[in-house]
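Step 1: inspect the first sequence and its tokens.
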Amino acid sequence: MRNSIKTLAGVGIVALALTGCSASGGDPAASGGAGTGDETYNLVLGHAGSTTDPRQWAAEQFAERIEEATDGRVTVEVHSDSTLGTWEEMIDGLQIGSTHIVIESLLSLEAYTDLASVETAPFLYDDNEQFFEVWEGELGAEIQTAVTEASGYATLGNMFRGSRELTTKEPVTSLEDLQGLTIRTPSAQTMMDSWNALGARAEALPFNEVYSALESGVLDGQENPLDAILFNSIHEVAPHIGMTDHMFANYHFLMWDEALQAYPEDIRTAIQDVAAGVGQEYTENTVTNLEDYRTQLEEGGAEFHEIEDRDAWIEATQPVVDGLPDQVQTWVEQIRSM
């Protein structure tokens, strides 16, 4: 499926280039990528969060700032709530031009390159500072370049999400409590492998189905950063939050790199600069708001629990890390040594 979509993408881009029409639909290939300075582009941006999710703020800020930075030559249509499809479908759509930008994490690219498993590898970071040291430095840049080259997707802007936590219907404070529970994860294979290794039953399910699946008892829990839990009301149906800190992640503005590189240089630079600026502010907002997210969750009925035997969780998932590609294991060693 993935390879066939890539083939379609190539055919579509060539076909558009052959038409010689103006790039009014947002695809630079329609004008061959050689801008005359007056082309306009309408970009379609999608994400899976609600309109109260911070991703919506990022999307709206990107739309506002890129229009200003390009003197109106670039406009952006923002679509929240998976209205363009699941995040998997939206990311596939980047290749054929049905979407132009998707706000998602690096984990969403694991279906296209196993190098993206560096984000989904469990228990790599001790705290936010270690995560920032990686992703604001040379190693983070190296990882992003390698993932782009291997997958075809550009990852623009680092929008810090915080650490992912386990949210369940009943309290989980130890590995024993987790055994046999059905836990929703994204469709990234490494994440599914990790929860299975911990003794749970990993279930990949579109995020827009998680609330109802928890409410009906199909799921026992799910895992996400606090912002996703709060702004999508997950705590209403799974009020027990185990502070596993099993993974730290950024969101990025994902684009199909071939399409990005085909824009005129000034447009491409503006897209990259605006994404970076929004990402920096998003990160600052997350760091500032994490304590407030917890307070709001507690006021909404959530209960927070510390994990009593976290070392056992790390030990149980080490075989998953050992099975990752050699390059990813090298990155893991570098990260854990920081």
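Step 2: inspect the second sequence and its tokens, then contrast the two.
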Amino acid sequence: MSSLPTRRSLLRAGMGLTLAGAGLSVAGPALPAVAAGPAMAAGQSGTPLCDRPGDSASQQGLGSGDLAIPYYREHDGTWGYVFGDAWTGTRQSGEYIGSPVMLNQASFDASGATPISFTWAMPTGGRAGQLFAYGHDTDNGYGHEVSRIPNDCIEFGGRTYIQYTSVHTWDPPAGYDGSLMSGVAYSDDHGVTWHDYDYRWAGDLQGANQSLYGMWSFAGIDPDGWLYVFSKRWNGTHKNTADGGAIQLFRIRPDDFRDGNFGAQQNWAHLGGSWQWTTAAPPSVILTGHNTGEFSVKRINGTYCMSYFDVDMGAICTRTAPRPDAVWSIPVPQITALTVPNLYGGYIHPGSASATSLTLIVSQWNGTVGTPYRVLQFDGIRP
């Protein structure tokens, strides 16, 4: 896809405006093996949630943005949506706000009858602002970074977490992922102020090209008490030719995660001829296939649902499994570039009606200033 290669130059332009294969047995078939998507999904065009003058996003200070990763704010039963690079005006006009940016919603209608409407913004209602304190297109002490892009957000135990990737370049050479590093930031005031854990996962520029810890998705805390996390190579550029669709799985106790004791994770690995949870080996790759971009895994009414952007197909695909470490169903293409040109993202709303009626948040942008730069809501998706 050509959605994001020019994003670095666009970021600079925005700031200028301001200032002037085969899957392993545990996972089932490889990503290229796909089933036909439901006719309902193929016919949907999606409901725009930003990039329209006077809409609820603009009333909170965000004119245009992408991603809008949804998460449940368990402390008060509301919902948060974490955007990537955002502007105050439509179609990347006005002031460049930064990334990540958060808008919130008091209540969510899982039926889709009432589209998402944003009620307030972080750090305060009506004035959306960048959540993290760092500079763009500069060295903040770790190497040159263009932007910090959120991959997922979760709240538990009174603390909110965002896993992000620091992007070194939006146009990496073939075989490189273009990342600087990845990290986890946390907030103890429900998203107003943020801090970084000291530990970070090295990326391309720091000598760890194609790290499988580049992009994470928090599947949630299972009834067994473990927080399950899926992760993959950074490919938010959609230009990582070596991505290969590889996804791994690990789990960690919520208290260890809160303490930043990331070394306490257990890994789902193929060791000694069998699949097992272990600390004696790193996670094994559980899925491979087409190059993939953004992905999302959530436990919906007891079923684990996965959504991801298949870069090669130009489609948002879904899969399901009864457990994180069980066999995953074959991919189903749900929304394609034929009906939604220049799409990417595809995040599962954790408040979806059921595992057979998902709400997906999909991004749309063709990489050119002045064109739609927005997120769309799709409902009733059957994976």
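Step 3: confirm your contrast with the notes below.
The radius of gyration is 19 Å. The helical segments are 7-19, 39-43, 56-59, 254-258.
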